[in-house]
Request: fold
Amino acid sequence: MTEYWLISAPGDKTCQQTWETLNNLTSRQHTLSVNYKFAIPDLKVGTLDQLVGLSDDLGKLDSYVESVTRKVSNYLGEVLEDQRDKLAENLLANGSDLASYLTRFQWDIAKYPIKQSLRNISDIISKQVSQIDSDLKTKSAPYNSLKTSLQSIERKQTGSLLTRNVADLVKKDHFILDSEYLTTVLVVVPKVNFGDWNAKYEKLTEMVVPRSSQLIYEDQEHGLFTVTLFQKVVDEFKHHARENRFMVKDFVYNEEEVAAGKNELSKLASDKKKQFVSSQEKKIGSFKRTSKIKV
Reply:
């Protein structure tokens, strides 16, 4: 990454002579750097007391501007996600990439009138950066909310069978539906206990349909089984299942709810993408910042 220094050089008779001396020593003779003029107009300096009084405030403002700038950069990085390698081309200052903005810097007299005192210019910058910080919080809140909701759903659809949502693993034909007496339950069984399950599930309680168990999914540690039994013995079956380290999932198959869950995930992903596009179209502010300052 290129590093930029802002250098104040001892003056010769003219600024141009100072520039030529600096450029000759650092760029032409020794190839230490590539130099650019950083044009700052003649500002109303004021008295020494005013400068001393402003010095501490400028240090605080400098830290604040850097903090907000990093927030904007980090936010755009989060929004870009798997396109994070394109962060540099999305971090723009007044429509220019940061390198061009620094090396071709021009003072914006309309925003920062040079007839104003340094204190007033400092206050203008502080207010503008504060507004940018506020805008960032406003714009990032909907995206962060969508991201959290999406991650929550995605976590429920991954991970251990003990905790994940199994709606995307089951099919309608795995269940006995619309029966007055029978129901199908889902049971999570540790892989090491598959043999115990097949030997015991029919005997955990009465009224279990023989040979009704079916393995429909397995991960590295557990398997998801169906078993059909009479509705009146479900609670007793759950109790005896727990005693044998078999966990009955609290799941009732409902085709509309399964479809709604999938639609919610798709909608959140779509809304998140829209927030990304919105963030790209509404670039937040522009900053003037150097990587390192040497006086």
User: Anything to note?
Assistant: Helices lie at 15-28, 48-80, 87-90, 98-103, 118-156, 194-200, 234-243, 255-281. The beta strands are 5-7, 92-93, 96-97, 182-190, 214-218, 222-230, 247-248, 292-294. The first helix runs from residue 15 to 28.
